[in-house]
Specification:
With 259 residues, the chain is mainly beta. The chain contains 3 helices and 16 strands.
């Protein structure tokens, strides 16, 4: 309802289309086939390593990483009854040789494919900025074909979200088997600029609200913080995980009944 290309369509019409889209997603002709494609519907030895995930961008889609087959499949359900679902198969070995592919995210509207890949020595994560239609080629609007994640040696990449020229993700670093911290990083995928980077102790969740605001659940889920994301205050030093830490301007805390 918010993201996507600019349109003069009134909200009432967008809501009607959204309701039709939801109905088609649940009851369309390809709904059964779509359910069977997801590994959590029927786990077998052949698909137990598949990793499905939603793509949080301007269009509903999901990806399925298939490590043993060394490929990624991208599915986009039909928009309406007259449309057909879209499906891409992306071979990883041919397009992304080298280290392990950790995550993949797409934005169909922008023809954007982001592939998060470990370097061979696992010291850093590279983010390949490609065209979804032509995954062997860099995206035409990207100044850099490869971005380097600011967090060194992460143990995983999570919750990738795309909004226009912004892409945000969280990464996990382990200090010991009992202690870990998480970073949230926001990049401009077109310019390659590190827009915002913040460091949190303990697990987090977040949502990129728009180009300038991000909300994060942290402190054992007891706090909900909203941050103002501004590229002007961001440091160009990506070697320090605290180089662009921001100060939240709204903080909601859960009530401590024991107190």
């Amino acid at each position: 309802m918010v993201d996507g290309p600019l349109s003069n369509t009134p909200v009432s019409e967008r809501l009607r289309l959204l309701k039709n889209y939801t109905f088609q997603l649940r009851n369309g002709t390809d709904a059964a086939a779509r359910s069977r494609a997801l590994p959590h519907w029927c786990v077998t030895p052949e698909n137990k390593d598949w990793a499905p995930s939603l793509s949080f961008a301007s269009f509903t889609s999901y990806t399925i990483r298939k490590p043993r087959l060394n490929l990624v499949e991208v599915f986009c359900p039909a928009i309406d009854f007259l449309d057909t679902r879209h499906h891409w198969v992306i071979p990883l070995a041919r397009n992304f040789p080298g280290g392990k592919v950790l995550e993949v995210s797409v934005d169909l509207v922008q023809d954007l494919l982001l592939v998060f890949q470990e370097e061979a020595d696992e010291s850093q994560v590279l983010v390949h900025v490609r065209s979804l239609q032509h995954p062997d080629k860099p995206h035409a609007n990207a100044m850099l074909s490869v971005l380097r994640a600011a967090t060194p040696c992460p143990r995983g990449m999570y919750c990738i979200q795309i909004h226009k020229d912004r892409v945000a993700w969280s990464s996990r670093m382990e200090l010991s088997h009992r202690e870990a911290f998480f970073d949230i990083e926001v990049r401009n995928w077109r310019s390659g600029e590190l827009v915002w980077h913040n460091h949190f102790h303990g697990e987090i969740s977040f949502a990129l609200l728009d180009e300038s605001h991000i909300v994060a659940g942290c402190c054992g889920w007891d706090e909900l913080r909203m941050y103002h994301v501004e590229p002007e205050i961001a440091s160009t030093d990506s070697s320090s995980p605290t180089g662009t830490m921001g100060t939240y301007f709204i903080c909601l805390r859960s009530w401590n009944w024991a107190g």
